[in-house]
Amino acid sequence: MDLIWLIPLLPGLGALVNGLVGVRAFGKRTAGLVANAAMAAALALALYAFWQLLSLPADAREHTVRLAAWIPPIPLALGNGAIGGFTVPWGFRLDPLSGLMILVVTLVGFLIHVYSTGYMHGETRGAYARFFAYLNLFAFFMLVLVLGDNFLVMFVGWEGVGLCSYLLIGYYYEKQSASDAGKKAFIVNRIGDWGFIVGIFMVYGTFGTLDFRAVADAAGPMGVEAAGFGTLSIITLLLFIGATGKSAQIPLYVWLPDAMEGPTPVSALIHAATMVTAGVYMVGRNAVLFSHAPMTMEVVAVVGVATAFMAATIGLAQHDIKRVLAYSTVSQLGFMFIAMGVGAFAAGAFHLMTHAFFKALLFLCSGSVIHAMAGEQDMRRMGGLKPHLPITYATMLVGTLAIAGIPPLSGFFSKDEILYRAFLDHKVIWGVAVATALMTAFYMYRLMSLTFFGAYRGPAWEAHGGRADHGHAASGGGHGHGGGGWRGPHESPRSMTVPLQLLAVGAVLAGFVGVPAALGGGNAIEHFLEPSFVARTAAPPGATAPATHEARGLGEAAHAAESKGGEGTGHAAHLSRSAELGLMALSVLAGIVGIAAAYRIFVRAPEIAETLARRWSGAHRVLSNKYYVDELYGATVVAGTMGAARGLWAFDRSVVDGAVNGSGWLTVSSAWVSHALDKYIVDGLVNLVGAVLEAGSFVVRRVQTGLVQNYALVMLFGVFAFVSVYLFVR
Amino acid sequence: MSNAANFPILSTILFTPIAGAVLLLFVNKRQENLIRWIANLVALLGFLVSVPIWFWYDPAGPQYQFIERVPWIPSIGADYFLGVDGFSVLLVLLTTLMGAIAVLSSWTAITDRVKEYYVFLLLLQGGMIGAFVALDFLLFFLFWEVMLVPMYFLIGIWGSDRRLYSAIKFFLYTLVGSVVMLLGILALYFHLHDVTGAYSFDITKFQAMHAPFDLQWWVFLAFFLGFSIKVPMFPFHTWLPDAHTDAPTAGSVILAAVLLKMGTYGFIRFSLPILPEATKASIWWVAGLAIIGIIYGALVALAQKDWKRLVAYSSVSHMGMVMLGLIALNPVGITGSIIQQLNHGISTGALFLIVGIVYERRHTREIAEYGGLSKVMPVFAAIFMVMMLSSLGLPTLNGFIGEILILQGAYTANIWWAAVAASGLVLGAAYLLWLYQRTMFGRLENPKNEHLRDLSLREIVTFAPLVVLAVWIGIYPAPFINRTAPTVQAVMQRVNPEYARASAAAGARQAPKIADCDENEPLTPFTTAPCGDAAEGQAPPPPAAPEGGGAPQANPAGGRH
Amino acid sequence: MAEAAAFYILAALILGFGVLVVTAKSAVHSVLFLVADFLCVAALYVTLQAEFLAVIQVMVYAGGIVVLYLFVVMLVNLKRPPDAQRDPRRLGRLGAVLAVAVMVELAAILAVGWSRPEGEAGALGPSNVAQVGRALYTDYLIPFELASILLLVAMIGAILLARREM
Amino acid sequence: MITATHYLLLSVGLFSLGVIGVLTRRNIIIILMSIELMLNAVNINLVAFSHELQNVVGQAFAVFVIVIAAAEAAVGLGIILAFYRNKETVNIDEMNLLRW
Questions:
Q1: Contact B304 A193 (CB under 8 A)
Q2: Per the CB < 8 Å rule, is D74 touching C158?
Q3: What confidence tens digit (pLDDT) does each residue in B70-95 have?
Q4: Which of A185, A308, A446, A719 matches a 20 to 30 Å C-alpha distance to A278?
Q5: Which chain B residues have a beta carbon less than 8 Å from that of A204?
Q6: Do A45 and A3 contact (CB within 8 A), yes or no?
Q7: Is C126 exposed, middle or buried (0-12, 13-18, 19+ CB in 10 A)?
Q8: Residue C78 touches chain D, beta carbons under 8 Å
């Protein structure tokens, strides 16, 4: 366990090798092998570390490794006037939450690496190595993010994954939309990071340390800021701004759908399974802070539910298969934030994990479909692919059912837990969330229907490869099939289907670690994660009242299992088991209704869809244009900034520089004025005198004949005079 | 590791480039390659002789080390007085390194009047080193002015388009500042005479002097003008884009990497410690100008169509950041400011080199002329990427360390400073990424770009040390930070004595030891204590934690405190 | 008496050649008369116990300077007579009159009588060269060296002036 | 008895001849030669006094005068040559550029 720092480092080394040497020297096999070996080693180490962690007693599952001082101590005053030392170590910490995360990241990451070796095989040699270098680099930063034991190391990973996301979205850099999307992702993330980093400053100013555990333990005894906005509320709100950027929540979600410009494995790994959940992870990591700030919690929950709902509605009307999944991701992230906002941190992390499996699965399946269609992403040009892609179809169906919350697949357990906790917190949030779940099931099944069922609507193909590169141009040519022509939809190679099957297994089984008590399970994952969400310091005596938000956030999860059946004295908001089962049934029902509706509309009677779209053409247009949010941002934020930029540039040239040039001009012109003065007035006087003298000397100057001898004559006159004086006067 | 033999290392560093310049005078100007070789070797030698001070400087020793002192003009009390502290050690090393890089980068870029060019470049280097090592005010001023002349000619002779305008603007602007600064120096000089009865330009004496507030105020204004023009701060910045745009590549590199540091060096070395009260009275507007500079520079950079001018405006933004950290007047801010000065030298210097590379090949700086260069110049694209990321403050690269320290310091001084200034990071990402996208990404549409050469070995060598430094500072900045500690503490003693007291109490002199703590903690559940806590002394208690209010089984925050 | 005779003859020759130098039409003639004049002056020096100076006079003046003049006269190959143009404003006659007047006045002063300046009465020994040499290399060393520099400068100047491609 | 006065009278006569030559002749070469005459007159004067006072200093000065004369002749003739090349004349009346 002392070697946990190797877990991120191994992919980092892989990235270094591939980036420095591989790009020039490695063949595709070597490059892929290096990257996959690095990830496999990281996975093995992570598994071993996790196993060691499990072998510890539950309250001692925390291990910190500090490599060196990153920033050595520098004295700095704190908010309360005392002088602390600002110092940041290169520290890594393994605890249940980060343990779960490294498992998810390395496992899903490894599978996606394997998948990529098949998916990317059409790239040129250098680009292939570059892709794996980026992918490994991403794994490095993501693992740093989750393992960091303090805010700043986490921030390293946080920014680093943003960078990798930028690089990978813009992987097809010759394509304008791809590089635009990459840039958009980075900048929007940076806007979020603004909040994160200011939050970090406040954390240091308040607590005098950036270590997560120390901060949590220091915050534990502080009072819950139920009354209004205190320091903790502001800190958490700022941190949450960071989370909205990274995890694509309102108002900063706009980058994620565009990020689908990247290769599909990237979308699966970064923009579905891991990176986008960093915000959720960060909120969970600071659960103690958040649970002390109920106002922020409410903001988090509201933003989460609003995002979930909005993204789901947009997902209803998209035609691009990856965009549907992207909005689905945004929506599911919204679910996770609902969990965080209602204090169900463990449930959120649980959903994070299950989502990582089924969403990665869905993306990889979509990648397989796109691969089969030679780059086509528009679902209107697909259909009827089921017989061509049996494995993809089966695994994707599993993913769809999981996300729709059909028991006993993984999505059911995690989503149901969130809905249940939301119900306890606020009925409206719950209601919207259930509606969102219904829509989720609907649009996911719509996706399935349009892709796999019905009649084939795609381009025709010739048996012997006539249509050489249809679709390649449209997709940026991610995966050309060598020189051969496209031979119609076909199942993907084994390197792609095996990861699909493995992920499908995960999507089915992952939920069983968190079977709720109501179904007779022990909700093992919540108990496991619990220590990561609480301060080790007990709450001060006055703050133990269980009705407070803190109690809900911290106490309840811990006591949830044994306090079933109304025995929990203060747990007014707790429900009976039957009510809990009822809610569960309701959420399952929502999923089934959604699927059924989609089946009815898109499989049985496709014309209904068109009728609906015509009847509600206004709404349809709004939805398919994503509520015009991009346009709105373009018109306000982007145009505003660029306008300000151009305005200031003009200002700089004309006013600031103008002042400088003006003073230069002033100097020159005043010199000119004084020159004129000099010339006509001062000089004029002089010239007047001169003119008088000139007139007077007109006669005299005739002496100046230019004849040397006449001048000598004058000398002689002088001699004559002197000699005469000597002769006569003496 | 110390300068046991009392070797006059500073004079050696100072006169190596000057001697090289004199040597070049005796070389026939037609032998251009010989001249290039000599200049490169001299510059490399100049860097090598400066390396020992990195190792010999002892952060635990007195503030100024390697002192050399010989009477110069005894009648007015001016001495040839050299000495460096950690801050100047870093800047001297930066100067010699960037000087060597600038000389190397000019190998093929300069084909006209080669001899004069290298003579000026080496003279300039000597002047800059002199300004950083002088501990005599008059000597400092001498070198400060000496720098102007070679730079003027570098821009004026080897520059592009509007070089004369830019050169004259640069010269006049900085000259105005330095004249006013000279008045300030003289005012202090006569005041020192009034107090001690002796005439002296000894900077250490000024730093120990307590001038009355009125005098401080006026001298601060005078110094402010001189230094802030050099930095440059917001309303005085317009010479910079012009000078940068029209200067030859090496000139831009030196200008950005070293010359701008003169201003901030002046603030930290003179304004803050000599005029503490006036500084404290001016915090608000100086910080205001710094923040305006950050945002303004970034926004204007966003609107640029000229590659080099964009980088120049990013300089304005970054130097605003440096000023903000400095005026926060706390150790973290000033440390960050110093580190960021190095960072700015490294990353912006590299960015100018990058522009120079393509300018040499295509003779245009219009961003619109480029696009898709990644395809033809992959190595170049990779280096540009690293340097761009370093400039926009990506963690694990150098820019981040400086910015985080500065902003943390600014936060401690005032929350809003940090909040507003941090938005500069967003804008920084915007203009740099957009620049990168417009030049490197996209389709290679301009046929003139189709056959651009990728970097030659010589060009890779010019970038290599910068990349290594960027990563080193990003990942392990402790050696740099430790070397700044004596300077920061000396400044704190004057402007914010509480910190000096606190760090004296906590034994901040032991800082290097803390930094080297790298053994892993034993496997216990409570290992949250930051490495080296014991030496740090009283780590801050959680502010709102009621003493003893917690449950007994709970270990207080920070484990072993 | 021989001394007096020598003086008068020499004086007459000196003045006579002087008149010829000034009045000769041709510059070449003028130069030749000048040589003769200088030789007479050298002879006069011998009578005045200044043998060294006499030698110098012959070598430098007659041998060096005048040859220089001769060269220049030859080099200046005139296509038209040098005196062809005459500026009416030149007051040549007035100059001649004035010169004669000055001469008369000076002669009058000499005739009226002049007081012999006080000076330590040394002795011009037989070894005139040694005496002059001692004076030049002891008391007048610095002027002597300066004179050498002057000659050097004049030489360089003359070369530079007379060089063809200016 | 030949006294110093005689020599001085000779000197005066020769000097005046030189002056007349300088003032009346137009050929600049002859003017220069007249100057040589004047210098010789001075030398006669110096040597006469040297003899009269039995002091060698006068002769030393005469040596210097000869030096000056040589220098003057060299530079003067150089100027004449240069001028001649430009204007093809040695007539002093045509050298009248130095006027109002």
A1: no
A2: yes
A3: 888 888 888 899 999 889 999 999 99
A4: A446
A5: 408, 411
A6: yes
A7: exposed
A8: yes
Strand partners, A88: A71
Q: What are phi and psi of B337, to 5 degrees?
A: -60, -45
Q: What's the distance, CA B295 to chain centroid?
A: 20
Taking alpha carbons only, the member of B259, B242, B233 closest to residue B167 is B242
Domain positions in chain C are: 1-78, 91-166
Rounded Cα gap, residues B428 and B241, in angstroms = 17
Whether D96 sits inside 8 A of A706 (CB atoms) is: yes
Beta carbons within 8 Å of B107's beta carbon, 6+ residues apart: B36, B40, B458
Query: Under CATH, which number does the domain C1-78 receive?
Result: 1.20.120.1200
Place of tokens 């870093």: B90
Residue A686 C-alpha from the chain's centroid: 79
What tokens were used for B289?
A: 């100008």
Residues of chain A in contact with residue C89, where contact means CB-CB under 8 angstroms, are 705, 707, 710
Name the residue ranges covered by the structural domains of chain D: 4-92
Is residue A646 within a helix (H) or strand (E), and if so which, with residue range?
helix A639-651
Q: Which residues numbered 20-79 in D keep a CB inside 8 Å of some CB on C?
A: 20-27, 29-30, 32-34, 36-37, 40, 43-44, 47-57, 59-60, 62-64, 66-75, 77-79
Select the more confidently predicted residue: B446 or A484.
B446
Percent of chain A clearing pLDDT 90 (strictly above)? 10
**A479: Cβ contacts below 8 Å, ≥ 6 apart:** A119, A120, A121, A122, A123, A371, A374, A375
Handedness of CA A207, A213, A219, A225 (dihedral sign): positive
Q: How big is chain C by its Cα radius of gyration, in Å?
A: 20
Instruction: Report how far residue A325's alpha carbon sits from residue A444's, in angstroms, rounded to the nearest whole number.
Output: 8
Token digits of residue A434: 């259930």
CA end-to-end span of chain A, whole Å?
Answer: 125
The pLDDT, as a whole number, for residue C120 is 63
* Residue B8: per-residue pLDDT: 87
Contact call for residues A366 and A326 (beta carbons, < 8 A): no
Coil, strand or helix at A606:
coil
pLDDT score, position B454: 87
Q: Decide if A405 contacts A412 (C-beta within 8 A).
A: yes
Residue A664, CB-side half-sphere exposure with 13 Å CA sphere: 17
A6 contact residues in B (CB cutoff 8 A)? none
Nearest CB to A723: which of C87, C90, C106? Answer: C106
- Count contacts between C and D (CB, < 8 Å): 240
Tell me the residue ranges of DSSP E strands in chain D.
none
Q: How many Å apart are CA A466 and CA B345, to the nearest integer?
A: 57
DSSP designation for B444: -
Q: Does the complex come out with an ipTM higher than 0.85? A: no
CB atoms C95 and A716 under 8 Å: yes
Least confident of A423-437, A618-632, B504-518: B504-518
Contact assessment for residue B354 and residue A101, using Cβ atoms and an 8 Å cutoff:
no
- The CATH fold assigned to D4-92 is Helix Hairpins (1.10.287)
A712 → closest Cβ in D23, D95, D100: D23
Would you call C36 an interface residue with chain D, using a CB distance cutoff of 8 Å?
Answer: no
- Amino acid letter for position B297: G
pLDDT at A469 over 70: no
Q: How far is A729 from chain C (nearest CA, A)?
A: 12
All partners of chain A with 3 or more CB pairs under 8 angstroms: B, C, D
Residues of A at the D interface (Cβ-Cβ below 8 Å)?
701, 704-709, 712-713, 716
SS3 B80: strand
The verdict on a CB contact (< 8 Å) between A71 and B302 is no
What is the chain D residue with the closest CA to C166? Answer: D82
Between CA A159 and CA A164 the distance in angstroms is 9
Over residues A555-588, the pLDDT tens digits come to 444 444 333 333 333 344 566 778 888 888 888 8
Residue A229, pLDDT score: 75
